[in-house]
Amino acid sequence: MNMTTLRELGEFGLIKRIAEYFPVQSENMSGIGDDCAILPFNDKENMLVTTDMLIENRHFLLDKITPYELGYKSLSVNLSDIAAMGGTPVGAFLSIGIPSKIDLLFIDRFFEGLKFLSGKTHTLLLGGDTTGSPDNLVINIAVIGKAEKDYIKRRSSAKPGDIVCVTGNLGDSAAGLKVLLENVPYTKLTKYFIRQHHMPRPHLKEGQWLSKQDGIRAMIDISDGVESDIHRIMESSLVGAQLEMDKLPVSKELNLAQQQFSWNIWEIALNGGEDYCLMTTVDPLKYENINETYLKIFHHPLYKIGTITGHTGKLELYLNGRKITTEKHGFDHFKNM
């Protein structure tokens, strides 16, 4: 009998397979299937727990990223999960496997980068584990956060008719990775993209504010790409979606790169990933009021990029009003091996 391979199953197929072994029985807990696990904490708040692993040559290249940037990014990607649930980070735990090629100067600079973001977000490093690694540097961080029970946002709350929105520009991080992998010459422009890739800002304040607004429904952080991550919402909420690619917000820098390098910036914005801004679905009757206040606080709109539909599991993509198909579907840790 032919067994399905990991590559065929894919990352999220594997996650589903694992989840079947560990169904959550308690109404007060939520496990596998969202950006964070939810645990009971006190009468008013729940505890949020998330973890992410970064492996050398899979998630980062030591000759392309500084240790300071790596320390920063290792924490940032976890804080983004807390942001997606509307939470506030409290503490972090670091497990790290260090090969012999890593020297103490590298380690010091790594922790300086981690400490900078830790201090900025009040996320204290509380412990962890250290070990040797035979070849590659392996970093795993777990973050504990908290959120008021009434305001926690999940992927499963989208409804047909909702407006799909994002909290920031898309594609700059993927452009940075493209620069690194394709050896695009370093200029002021390309260095900007590399910085966006190596030092993404977790949208904690945006997530905390949005979670408290009546009319904000589902929410997720954009880590694997807009197309992949809208599928997470669709699957959890049993809905479909229409996305308008020409509405995807892109920076002036990415527009300039399109002119200089003839890049397909809409494909980059849709499927690039690692933007770590938030995607949310909004009650269409409440969007205008929410956006008006959001604009005053964050100095840019809550960008509308599409609509939730009742066609369960069906994603439709449009560019300038014309229905299109794309070849890529975001990042998958096993299908991209």
Number-wise, the strands total 12
**How much strand content do the residues show?**
15-25%
Oligomer: single chain
User: In the CATH scheme, what's the topology name of the largest domain?
Assistant: Phosphoribosyl-aminoimidazole Synthetase, Chain A, domain 2
Find the structural class using helix and strand composition. alpha+beta
Question: Outline, from the CA principal axes?
Answer: globular
Provide the succession of SSEs: HHEEHEHEEEHHHEHEHHEHEEE
Helical amount: 25-40%
Label the CATH architecture of the largest domain.
Answer: Alpha-Beta Complex
Number of domains: 2
- Give the radius of gyration: 20 Å
Helical element count?
Answer: 11
Q: Indicate the mean pLDDT.
A: 93
Report on the architecture of this protein.
Helices cover 36% and strands 24% of the residues. It has 337 residues and is of the alpha+beta class. It has 2 domains: 6-151, PurM-like, N-terminal domain (60s Ribosomal Protein L30, Chain: A), CATH 3.30.1330; 155-324, Alpha-Beta Complex (Phosphoribosyl-aminoimidazole Synthetase, Chain A, domain 2), CATH 3.90.650. The strands form 2 sheets. The chain has a 7-stranded mixed sheet, sandwiched between helices. β11 (315-319) and β12 (322-324) form a beta hairpin. It is globular and about 55 Å long. The protein starts with 5 loop residues before the first helix and ends in a 13-residue tail after the last strand. The model has no long low-confidence stretch (mean pLDDT 93).
